[in-house]
Amino acid sequence: MTTVHVPAVRTSAADLSVWPASTTEPAPGDLAVSGVPLAEIADRFGTPVYVLDEAEVRERCRTYRHAFPDADILYAAKAFLCRAMVHWIDEEGLGLDVCSAGELELAVTTGFPPDRIVLHGNAKSPHDLDTALRLGVGRVVIDSPSEIARLAAAVGPDGHQKVMVRVVPGISAGGHQKVRTGTDDQKFGLSIADGYAQHAVTRILDQPQLELTGLHCHLGSQITGVEPYLVAVRRMVGLMTRLYEQHGLVLRELDLGGGHGIAYRPGEPALDLTALARGIRGELADACAAAGLPRPRLVIEPGRAVAGPAGVALYRVLAVKHTGDHVFVAVDGGMSDNPRPALYGVRYAPRLVGRRSAAGPARVTVVGRHCEAGDVLASDVDLPGDVHPGDLLAVPVAGAYHLSMASGYNLVGRPPLTAVRDGHARLLVRRETLEDIGSRDVGL
Ligand SMILES: *Cc1c(COP(=O)(O)O)cnc(C)c1O
Question: What does pLDDT average to over the chain?
């Protein structure tokens, strides 16, 4: 156990705006999260390594519950999940949104109440659906017409399963084209515009063992404005109104998904949760009153905004190369532990930790160790000009879609994840070893 306690002094606060709230600078050039110096974590667990601030995760859950006291808040497990995380989410009173049998099984076998879990997926396998029914998942979100008959058959004539329908409201929002899921030209959901959503509802109503509790939509990710959610409320209540007129159907739940944007670098915008909550509450009340419908219970599904800002990734510098106009700082991780810059062009703000440097800033590109020229972690960032092999770099906002998206590329093994709390660090997920990798290679 790490037992170093660091006084809670915050200097250069502006620089730490995207870091966990517990981040301190115990000595110049040093950074500690929840009282644990990052250099100590690197020494103890090796690099690359992820650090997750437990208090920050819990605090973010509480912020959601406080902002949305009347809503069900489901943490989107795909952002990051491990057994400790399952406990924290449960203890903080949130539900879970999962999108595979694997995420579902992990949560339920860790003791998470299955009735507080919602299963998503545009292509659920028979195994996904069987696991959902076997474990008693709370809701299955129907995402394609063929899923209705498949699910009904799997449930059986005497069974019962609550479902929602994933609706495409026709809204373009989100930080990158690859994460926009509210429009009609992508793979998720059933569109309002072409009538598929309404048609799916009709077919579900024909299946007595399926109970439709509400509609769902998820507009995309990294949305920083409130307006797209308000448009979604209007369109979803519009559909609910037509369903009421057509079938006399009154839906009890409205799930607006997640996608709440966060800042990855100081100065970037983030979605204002208080404004979001106030806006949605008002819009939903007005739209339902105008339609003469009772207000459905609101469900929201934040992933990134709960886990992302609570995490930090630590790397060791292995090489510094000056070529033409560029300085490349190569670290011991890269696209296998963070594919997001390569996938979506996400920008990060890495920082030298573990030593003080008096050198002036140099414009550098931080690259990974993988065999791809596109293996760039952060382009055109300022680091001290004397950055050299052996230095430690810390990348904040690494708690979501990092380890969960990590790959086996180049057989370097996925990094471990440690949790820090009250001056202590503990291992939650160990490093993937060559033995782990070798154990799957059974052909010789
Ligand atoms: C990914 C996803 C979320 C969470 O998105 P974030 O951007 O992490 O908040 C919520 N709901 C659904 C259906 C998703 O696919």
Answer: 94
Domain containing residue 418: CATH number: 2.40.37.10
Q: Residue 221 is part of a domain; what is its CATH number?
A: 3.20.20.10
Q: Range of 406's domain?
A: 32-53+309-439
CB atoms under 10 Å from CB of 349, counted, come to 21
Residues with CB under 6 A from ligand 1: 76, 78-79, 97, 120, 218, 221, 257-260, 301-305
pLDDT score, position 175: 66
Average pLDDT, integer, range 236-242 = 97
The answer, as to whether pTM is greater than 0.90, is: yes
Q: pLDDT tens-digit profile of 373-404?
A: 899 999 999 999 999 999 999 999 999 999 99
Residue 290 is assigned to a structural domain of this protein: yes
For residue 177, give Cα distances in angstroms to 66, 76, 235, 302.
32, 20, 22, 19
* Residue positions annotated with a catalytic role: 371
Distance 242 CA to ligand 1 centre (A): 27
